[in-house]
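Section 5.1 Outputs to date
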Amino acid sequence: MVKVSILGATGVIGKNVAFKLARNDTVDEIVLFSRPQSVDKAKGEMFDMYDALAAEDIDCILTPTCDFNDIADSQIVLITSGIPRKEGMKRLDLAIPNARIVSNYAKAVAEHAPDSIIIVATNPVDVMTTIALEASGFDKKRVIGIGNHLDSLRLKTYFSKQININSSEVHTRVIGEHGDHMVPLLSSTTIGGIPLKYFIKSVDIDVIRLVNRLKKAGNTIISKKGATEYGPSYAISNLISTIITDSHKILTVSTYLDGEIGDVKDVSLGVPVVLSKKGIAMIVPIHMNEYEKKEFINAANTVKKSSDEVRRHLEI
C-alpha cells in the first residue's frame, strides 16, 4: 500500500499536489494534514476531490487530519507548510519564520514516520532542505527539496516555444539555488541532440532573454495571479511519482552536498540525481564550463550564508 502524507494540504500547493497524485492512481492513501483550525477545510477538499475522482473511477483514500499519528507508515511525507511568497519578496525573505515550521514538522515526521522520504517544497527550498535534514536526523538520501526541477521544466518550455519545436527534443537543466542564483547549464543543453552552441548559429534564439525570464518567472506569475500554483504542484507530484514508481529518472532536486559536485560542502543545492523508491540513488556527475562553475560556487556561498544565519536563529 502506497501512502503519501502532505503537511500543509489546504494550501494552494498542497491541495493541488494531493489531487494530481490521486488522479495518477498510483497512491492508495493521501493524508491531508493541516493545522487544527484548518481541518474543516481539509475535509471540504476531501469531499470535493472525491466527487471529481468518482468521475474517473479512482478509489484513492483521502484522510483529513491534524493528528501526526495519522502519517504513520507513509512512504513519502511532503512538507509544503510555511508563509507563501508575495510579490516583490525574495525566497530568502521567508527563511527564518519558515525554518521554525519546517524544523518542527521534520522532527514530527522522524517520530511518526521514521522510514519515510521527506520532500521539501517550503521556500527558500534549498535552505529548508538543510533544516529538514538536520531536524529529522535522516540520511541525506531521504531528504529532498524540489530544487531546480521546476526551473529546468520552465527553461525546457521556453526553448521549445521560442523555436516552435516539441519540448521532448529539448534537453536542458538548471542547477544551483532555486532563486536568483540559479545556474542554467547552457554548455550541456542540446536540442534534437545538437549542442545549443551549434544550434543557435542557424536559429534565432535570444538565450540571454530566456535566462532572464526564467529567473523572474515566479515573481511574474505572482504579480499577475497572486501565487504560483500549477507549475510547482505538477513538478512536485512528478517528483513524488518518480520515487513511488521506482523509475530511476534523473531530476534536478535540492540535496545536501558533501563534495560530490565542484567540491561544494555543507549546503543543499539543486543538482541532477537518480531517484528511486529509496530516495536519492546517486548524484549525477555533471560538466560545467568555467562561468557555470563560478556561478555554482556563488550559489553555494549565498545559500550557505543564509543556512548558517537560520541555524543561529533556531538556536536562540
